[in-house]
Amino acid sequence: TTTTTTATPAISIRTATSSSPSTTITTTTSATTTTITTSANTTTTTTTTVTSDFRHELELQKAEAEKAWAAQKRALAAKEQAQHERSLKLSRLRAMLTARRVRLGPEIPAQKEYRAGPECRGDALVWPVLFVYDEYMQSDFVREVHEDEPLAVHLSQMFPPHGEAPPWDLQRQYCSPNLHLYVPVHDPPTSSEACWLQVSQQATLRDLVSLSGYVTPGWPVIHVLVAGSDFERRFLHDT
To answer: Which end of the chain, N or C, is surrounded by fewer C-beta atoms within 10 Å?
Structure first.
């Protein structure tokens, strides 16, 4: 029997047996090569080669797959959590609208571009509001109005008594003390016909959306007219 050990970079196992009266077994590792020669009468050959680079590549692929799967599970959990939170918010919003006797109707075309709606803020609601100035075919969109804030607060900001008038108000008639607010209501509430109801500037959105006969079109739309003007008279008579 002869044993020889040498250095080699690969892993190889080879067994070769022939009709000659000897058998050679060569064992190669990443560090050494061992050759053993003995006598034998049968012929068998087996060769196996696995490099250390190949094993390293497999380990890297396994680690990447495990990392991707963990990221996918985290993303799925985050999506489910977000859906659960949205469901809770929606349920709470519905309960608050019901408590205030709010009747919601479909949005009007002018609202669709804003993609807005009421939101819960603590124990209160915050509404978007569209103020419409029919005389000049203009409007102002206010994204957040607290339900307990008087409408006069926003009118005084948009039309201060001694401030600059909007460019479309050439006659400078639109200042907050000189404005009337209107919303359509159904009287009685079951009627299909609507009439205009004047709303006080000191009213809040909570007062408005709780009015009997008022159907909120997604969120409040308030028509603003100059008090005592010819246009106000025509508007109330013709529409």
So the answer is: N
Helix (H, G, I), strand (E, B) or coil at 114: helix
Torsion 160-163-167-172 (CA) sign: positive
- How many Å apart are CA 95 and CA 120, to the nearest integer? 10
How many whole angstroms separate alpha carbon 168 and alpha carbon 138? 8
Q: State how far Cα 231 lies from the chain centre.
A: 43
Instruction: Return the minimum-mean-pLDDT range out of 51-55, 147-151, 205-209.
Output: 51-55
Q: How far apart are alpha carbons 98 and 151 in whole angstroms?
A: 22
pTM for the whole structure = 0.66
Q: What does the pLDDT look like over 6-49, one tens digit per residue?
A: 444 444 444 444 444 555 544 444 444 444 444 555 544 444 45
Percent of the chain surpassing pLDDT 70: 79
Check whether the bond before 188 is cis (ω within 30° of 0).
yes
- What is the DSSP secondary structure assignment for residue 112, as one 8-state letter? G
Q: 207 phi and psi, to 5 degrees?
A: -65, -45
Q: Please tell me the distance from the alpha carbon of residue 17 to that of residue 37, in angstroms, as a whole number.
A: 10
Question: Among 33-37, 85-89, 223-227, which stretch is predicted with the lowest mean pLDDT?
Answer: 33-37
Tokens of 115: 């993609």
